[in-house]
Each structure stands twice: as structure tokens, then as C-alpha cells.
From TrEMBL:
Stored Pfam families: MGH1-like_GH
An example Gene Ontology molecular-function term: Glc3Man9GlcNAc2 oligosaccharide glucosidase activity
Name assigned to this protein: Mannosylglycerate hydrolase MGH1-like glycoside hydrolase domain-containing protein
Domain Mannosylglycerate hydrolase MGH1-like glycoside hydrolase: residue ranges: 442-544
Signal peptide: none
SUPFAM superfamilies named among the record's database cross-references: Six-hairpin glycosidases (SSF48208)
One example of a Gene Ontology biological process annotation: oligosaccharide metabolic process
Length: 749
């Protein structure tokens, strides 16, 4: 299905492409977990999870980013907005998602219930949901029970603690609607699902990423930014040397007239006294709101109305089965003549209604086939999750290695430098919005994950898809020798070479007709991929026999041993999957070269690309000849074009039922889509047997897109929001819908 070509959201995308208006300047780019990442690790032993823990995160400043709950930031993560919550019973203020590090019986895992419900490509409209328990959050129970369980036991999830029984929780809906490029409306709806009234502390929070404290001159500020409230004003004025003057409205809850909230001020600075028993450089520090709200320390916040971190403190009761709504607004003062400009409730609702209707129109224009309402809901949430995986990613490897001595981030000692994995990538300079595999579980760029992310992206925002591929192959990412980085944990690792395939697919998807395909994009990525192909041939085929090794290839984490490590006794490993990946790489490069060679559709011939196509054909033949000794990967759908119905195999295994390859392909597609779709009893296999996801109207239409799935039951496992990969199910759903329509048409003829 080609991208849409009409509607308000399409026009916004057009303005972005033509560089007329920067609609994506603000978006969901705030990380969900900055703690426990390699880029924040300055330890001697590379124990990333223990060096910067969840408990440290509320008191300690990040060097390379920020995180928050259901948040928003600009594309350079200078000014951030997020929500903080307290139910009056938790031991800490809920400012970020909680999860386990390697202490879990199946490794790291987020232990929360949150969902991405909607987003347009320009983020002109976004909606997400967090389910916040009214009883004390079972932090310790989750840690201890998961630690007690073995790898043979299932993970112990938040739902298993019975914390949501009796509906004792709040649904916290956060919506964003752009009135203009730099005019963002925020609507927070708090719904009490319980049969009893319940109290909540709600703290919408504005804060600057700390860019002023470091020795690096890259983002050094000539003056400290500030957020301040002037006498008599119900707005916050925001000053930052790299931003225009902004304002943030201080509004009462809807229906409470002029009851404005308490406004709390502090600094986004580390609490050195608490963490290291050192004197604080500033009297007001990052965890001030936790101290003020949870511990009742009234001296923790700045009595002066200014700071680099500010919260509006609302505390209110929500009646049983009722909702409270709050409207807020962040806007550029330069667009209003440097004068504050308040909106009434009707104006807020008008913008939200318009953006929601435009989002509906946008997605209706891209649905392929005759989809059911359930299928549309799955696709909409898959795209929402995909769009919410965008994150500001900042990592300058050389500066990371050099450290920040003043802030207890020492340069790596010689002993650590000998073992630290990313020292060969000191050219790498990242400060971009990138698509993450999962913003909590894997909040860092991964090149082969990205290759799969851009396929669904190409259907809704082809220019973003292309820009991601081009970026990952730019000289400040790609090594000079042609190697493409793997992922933050080990940039030097080797992943399957799928970027050529991704570029080829994006090229074909992202135009309404062959004549309008972006040949400049294809040409650019082809030249960079030539370097990468040469790296593979020179580094991973040591004996020039077209048999390749590669380390971490194929499916994640299923090898009998770690293929990244050097084998003992000078042994070598020849990998059938590594070799087949290179055959696939060569064949894709041949297709790209043939396309660029021209000679059809009235395009002139280009002899240089003709020569390159024959070069890759030759390379493919050599590899195929070598790999025939191993066997290889097969795409049943494509092979069916050659074999037709003359070749059938048994499917399912041991069923006695014979199918052609296209029938097998459709059967696999049907099974994949059924993981997410409701069956006749309203059950989604991905959610298992939990009755809430089957019967409860506040849960049953919510869909999670897991990292992988139980082979027998379809239960979702691993990362719960890995939409980058799992959003590919969109294509499967649309293919099955198209097949239904074709079969129906044949029956009626």
C-alpha cells in the first residue's frame, strides 16, 4: 500500500518534506529508561545495571539524555515534559517506569502496564495510557518473586500481584495535540476505575536536560536556562539559549474554576549528599519533588519561583467510576507577540477534536483490504507504538571514554579500556531522533532492528524511513572501513546485513508509482552499502572461499554457545546462516544496481551500474555454489512463483496434509495474525488467559506487541513494546484481509 496522498496530515508531511514547517520538532522523543544504559555507565567493571540503578535515577543527573513517564520533548531533548504521580501510599514518586535488571528470572523486564493508543507521523496528535495502582506499588515483591523463580518458571508480572483486582487503579490518559508547530496542547484525563473514591497527586513536570554541567563544549550553554513564574502570572516563562522564549500555562483542573495548583521549583542537579555523602553544589536538587510530596520535606524545594525543573502539584479526589480532566499548553511566545495567550476549554476541545479526526482520516486512507474493526484497532495501535519508539539518542563515544571527573564520571582506567567494547568507535557522534527497538527494554539504536522498523514506517512516513537508513550509514555512524554499528552494548558486534533489503523495500514502498520513486535515495544508500559489502568480504571470508562467519547472526539468543567469542585452540567457525545472509545481501545489491542501471521506463542506460549488477550476480553464484553444501534459507512465497503447485510439502508437520509453498506461506501468515486478533471468545493469544484482556472493557481492546511469543500458546514474551519489529504484523493482517476479499469475489462470480 503506497503512502497517503491527501488529507491534513499528509499536507503536514508535505510541508516537512519541503522544509517549509518543522512539524516533528516536538514528539515522544523522551526515553522511558535512561538509567542502566551503557552510555551512562562509568564503572570500572562495566556493570551497567548496578552502576546507574532505578533508585539512583530520581536523585542523579543523566549525562546523555533524559527519561520520564508518557513524556514529550523537542528533537534535541532540551526542554522535556512528563507526568509524575503519587497515590499517597507508594514509597517513591512515580516519575518513570519501573522494571527489573538482570535480577529477573528471564533477565531485564519492565513491570508496568502502559499502552500507546494513537499517533500521527508528525505527532500532531498522540495518545497513550498508563494504569496506575491505587494501592502501594509492589516494588519489593516483584524483585523478590522474580529472583526466587527459575528460568523454567514464567515471569512474575505486575498483573500477577493482584494489584489491579477490584479495579483499584487509575487510568491516566495523556493526549497531545499540536495547534501549530510550536504550540502543543496537553490533555490529561484521570479515570478512577474503582467503586470507591480515591485521591491522587498529579504533577505535570517541565525540566531541562542538564547540558550546562559538562566539560564538553558541544552543548555548553553561555548562561544557565531557567523556568520562572513572574508575580501575578499563571504562566511559566521558559528561557534557553537554544530555544525561542516559551510559555507554559498554569491552569486549574476542569470544573474547578480558579483553583490553580501549587507550583514547585528545583534544579536538575545530582543530590550528592544523598548518594555519595558529599556536599551538594546546589541546595535544591533533582529529587526535591519526591522529598516534598512523599517525605513531607518542605525545605526541599526552592522558595523562589525559578529553577530548571518545575512541577504543577494537583491533589484531588476522583469519585468512583469518574474522571477528572486537566488541560495544559506549551507554546512559543514569539508566535503570540511575546504576550501570554490563554485558551478556554472550548478552544482546547476544538483542537483535540480536529486532530483526532485528521488522525482517523489519515489511517483510513492507508488501510489495505477490507479490514474488520478489530484488525483496524490492532494496526492503529501497532503504528502508535512504532511512532512512540522514536527517541532522542545522544552518545559521543570519545567524550564518554574521556569521562567527567568533576561529576564522578571518571575517564576509563587503562584496565577498563582494555575490555570496554566500544573504544574502536571513537568517531561515532550521535545526537539524533532514532527509532528504538523498545524505549524501556532496548532504549538504544540497533542497526538490524532499524532495518525492520523502516518497513512499516515507509507506509506512513517514507521520508522518515529513508532518513533513518541514510543516517545509520553516515560517516559519523558508519566506520571508515565500512562496518555498520550493531548496538550500544557492543558497537563492534556483527548482525545480519539486512540494510540493503530494507533500503530496496523502502524505495519500492515509498512512492505511489514507479515513475516517482526516489532514485537519489537509492543511489546514495547503494554507495554506502558497497563499503559495507566490501567489509564483509574482507573481514568475514578469511580464506576467500565464499563461506562467511559473522558472530551474532540469525535469531537472537538461540545459539548453543556465544558465537561472538573467539573459539579455543585456534578453531574456526563457518556459518551457514552467515553465508546465506551474504548471498541475500549480494542478490539485493544486484537488484539495486539493475534498477540504477536504467534502460527501462524511459530512463537512460548507465553502464557503470550494469557492471556492478553483473559483479553482484557473479558473487551471488559463487556463494550459492559454496552454500549448497550447507543448504540455505528459502522464501516459500517467492519460490512458489517458480514451482507453482508442482511442489508441495506437508503442513502442518505430521498432519498428512500437503500444501503448495504459497499455501504454506498463507498458513504461517494466518497463524501470526491470530496471535493478535480476538478469537470467538474474545481472547487474544498474545495476552494469554488473563480474564481482564478477554472480558474487561477497559483492557480487552488494548494490544501489546511483544519481542517474541510462546511457540505453543502464542503468549507474548520478552519486551512488551517492541513495535519496531512486531509492527511488521500490519502487512500480514492486510495480506489476509486482501485474500479474504479475493476469495469472496471469486465466490460471487
Amino acid at each position: 500500500m503506497p503512502p497517503p496522498t491527501h488529507g491534513a496530515e499528509y499536507e503536514r508531511l508535505r510541508e516537512v518534506y519541503d522544509r517549509k514547517r518543522n512539524w516533528p520538532r516536538w514528539g515522544p522523543y523522551l526515553a522511558e529508561r535512561q538509567w542502566g544504559t551503557v552510555r551512562e555507565d562509568y564503572s570500572d567493571d562495566a556493570n551497567t545495571w548496578e552502576y546507574f540503578t532505578h533508585d539512583h535515577a530520581r536523585s542523579r543527573v543523566y549525562r546523555w539524555g533524559e527519561d520520564g513517564l508518557l513524556g514529550l520533548t523537542d528533537r534535541h531533548c532540551r526542554l522535556c515534559f512528563a507526568v509524575a504521580l503519587w497515590n499517597g501510599k507508594d514509597s517513591i514518586l512515580k516519575e518513570r517506569l519501573f522494571g527489573l535488571s538482570g535480577k529477573g528470572n528471564h533477565g531485564e523486564d519492565v513491570k508496568e502496564q502502559y499502552f500507546y493508543l494513537d499517533s500521527t507521523p508528525t505527532h500532531s496528535y498522540m495518545k497513550c495510557l498508563y494504569k496506575y495502582p491505587q494501592q502501594a506499588f509492589p516494588y519489593q515483591e516483584l524483585v523478590e518473586e522474580n529472583k526466587r523463580r527459575t528460568r523454567k518458571d514464567p515471569e512474575y508480572e505486575l498483573i500477577d500481584t493482584k494489584i489491579f483486582d477490584n479495579n483499584e487503579y487509575f487510568d491516566i490518559f495523556v493526549e497531545y495535540a499540536k495547534r501549530d508547530v510550536n504550540d502543543i496542547l496537553i490533555r490529561i484525563t484521570v479515570t478512577n476505575r474503582s467503586d470507591k473514591s480515591a485521591k491522587l497527586h498529579l504533577l505535570p513536570t517541565l525540566f531541562f536536560r542538564n547540558t550546562w554541567a559538562w566539560t564538553s563544549q558541544i552543548e555548553k550553554e553561555p548562561f544557565r536556562p531557567k523556568i520562572e513564574r513572574q508575580d501575578g502570572e499563571n504562566i511559566l516563562r521558559i528561557e534557553h539559549c537554544h530555544l525561542e522564549p516559551f510559555a507554559f500555562d498554569i491552569n486549574p483542573m476542569d470544573g474547578t474554576d480558579d483553583q490553580v495548583p501549587e507550583v514547585l521549583f528545583t534544579e536538575n542537579e545530582t543530590n550528592l549528599k544523598k548518594l555519595y555523602n558529599m556536599k551538594n553544589e546546589y541546595p535544591y536538587v533533582k529529587d526535591a519533588f519526591h522529598e516534598y510530596i512523599v517525605n513531607g520535606n518542605k525545605d526541599a524545594v526552592n522558595p523562589l519561583p525559578q529553577g530548571t525543573k518545575v512541577a504543577l502539584h494537583y491533589q484531588f479526589n476522583v469519585d468512583a467510576n469518574s474522571s477528572q480532566i486537566l488541560h495544559l499548553r506549551l507554546y512559543c511566545l514569539a508566535d503570540t507577540g511575546n504576550m501570554p495567550q490563554k485558551l478556554n476549554r472550548e478552544e482546547y476541545n476544538k483542537v483535540f477534536d480536529e486532530r483526532k479526526q485528521e488522525a482517523d482520516q489519515f489511517y483510513e486512507s492507508i488501510y489495505a483490504g477490507e479490514l474488520t474493526d478489530d484488525e483496524k484497532n490492532i494496526i492503529r495501535q501497532a503504528y502508535a507504538g512504532l511512532l512512540h519508539t522514536k527517541q532522542f539518542y545522544h552518545y559521543i563515544v570519545k567524550h564518554w571514554i574521556d569521562g567527567e571527573e568533576k561529576y564522578l564520571m571518571p575517564a576509563f582506567p587503562e584496565k577498563r579500556l582494555q575490555t570496554v567494547k566500544n573504544t574502536a568507535w571513537q568517531h561515532m557522534w550521535c545526537r539524533d531522533v532514532l527509532s528504538m527497538p523498545d524505549k524501556w527494554e532496548y532504549p538504544w539504536v540497533a542497526s538490524w532492528d532499524l532495518a525492520f522498523h523502516v518497513i512499516p514506517f515507509a507506509h506512513i512516513d517514507p521520508d522518515f524511513a529513508k532518513s533513518q537508513l541514510l543516517l545509520i550509514m553516515r560517516e559519523w555512524y558508519m566506520s571508515a572501513n565500512g562496518q555498520i554499528m550493531a548496538y550500544e552494548l557492543n558497537l563492534d558486534d556483527v548482525n545480519p546485513p539486512v540494510l540493503a533489503w530494507a533500503a530496496w523495500r523502502v524505495y519500492k514502498i515509498s512512492a505511489v508509482s514507479k515513475e516517482r520513486r526516489d532514485r537519489d535515495f537509492l543511489h546514495s544508500v547503494f554507495l554506502k552499502l558497497l563499503l559495507n559489502f566490501t567489509w564483509w568480504v574482507n573481514r568475514k571470508d578469511p580464506y576467500n572461499k565464499n563461506i562467511f562467519s559473522g558472530g551474532f547472526l540469525g535469531l537472537d539468543n538461540v545459539g548453543v554457545f556465544d558465537r561472538n567469542k573467539i573459539l579455543p585452540n585456534s578453531m574456526e567457525m563457518h556459518q551457514s546462516d552467515g553465508t546465506s545472509w551474504i548471498a541475500f545481501f549480494a542478490l539485493t545489491m544486484m537488484n539495486i544496481a539493475l534498477e540504477l542501471a536504467g534502460g527501462k521506463d524511459e530512463l537512460p542506460m548507465n553502464g557503470a551500474f550494469q557492471d556492478m549488477s553483473s559483479k553482484f550476480l557473479e558473487h551471488f553464484i559463487y556463494i550459492v555454489d559454496a552454500i549448497n553444501k550447507f543448504g540455505g534459507k528459502k522464501n516459500g512465497c517467492k519460490y512458489h512463483r517458480f514451482f507453482g503447485d508442482s511442489w508441495k510439502i506437508e503442513c502442518p508437520t505430521r498432519s498428512g496434509q500437503m500444501m503448495s509453498l504459497i499455501e504454506v506461506s498463507r498458513e504461517i501468515t494466518r497463524r501470526i495474525t491470530n496471535i493478535f486478533k480476538c478469537d470467538d471468545q474474545g481472547r487474544r493469544a498474545c495476552h494469554g488467559d488473563d480474564i481482564r484482556f478477554q472480558k474487561d472493557p477497559y483492557w480487552r481492546d488494548l494490544v501489546l506487541f511483544h519481542e517474541y511469543f510462546h511457540g505453543d500458546t502464542g503468549l507474548g514474551l520478552g519486551a512488551s513494546h517492541q513495535t519496531g519489529w512486531t509492527a511488521v504484523v500490519i502487512r500480514h493482517i492486510e495480506d489476509m484481509a486482501q485474500l479474504r476479499a479475493n476469495n469472496s469475489k471469486e465466490k460471487n462470480e
